[in-house]
Design a protein that fits this description.
Elements: E1 16-21, E2 27-34, E3 37-45, E4 51-58, E5 61-69, E6 75-82, E7 85-93, E8 99-106, E9 109-117, E10 123-129
Antiparallel strand pairs: 1-2, 2-3, 3-4, 4-5, 5-6, 6-7, 7-8, 8-9, 9-10
């Protein structure tokens, strides 16, 4: 069984590279802490070993490009965060791999032209957000 890597700083805060494992030996997550805040690239896994998400943190906030996956390995969503808010172009998918929606966010709010789809992949609606 793998041992958890859990470094701390002098203030007893999580600091540095961490790996945490499920009891079955599968990796739960890996990433860096800076003074007890997630900072830098992180990955999180399901108990079956499948990647759950990957992305970057800046001072404990999601920042930059992210991808998340269903436990079956199919892509759930991909897009960018800016200070923990969705920002820029995003796509989300159903668990069957078909597109759910696509569009842009500005500071966490839908903005501009969006498309939504049914579970079977057929176009459901087009909306323009202001």
């Amino acid at each position: 069984m793998k041992k958890n890597i859990t470094p701390y700083n002098d203030q007893d805060e999580r600091h540095g590279y961490w790996e945490v494992y499920y009891p079955n030996g599968q990796l739960v997550y890996k990433g860096n802490y800076l003074n007890d805040k997630k900072h830098g690239y992180w990955e999180n896994y399901y108990p079956n070993g499948q990647l759950g998400y990957k992305g970057n943190y800046l001072n404990d906030k999601k920042h930059g490009y992210w991808e998340a996956y269903y436990s079956n390995g199919k892509l759930n969503y991909k897009g960018n965060y800016l200070n923990d808010k969705k920002h820029g172009y995003w796509e989300a998918y159903y668990s069957n791999g078909k597109l759910n929606y696509k569009g842009n966010y500005v500071n966490g709010n839908e903005h501009g032209y969006w498309e939504y789809y049914y579970y079977d992949g057929e176009l459901k609606e087009k909306i323009y957000y202001i």
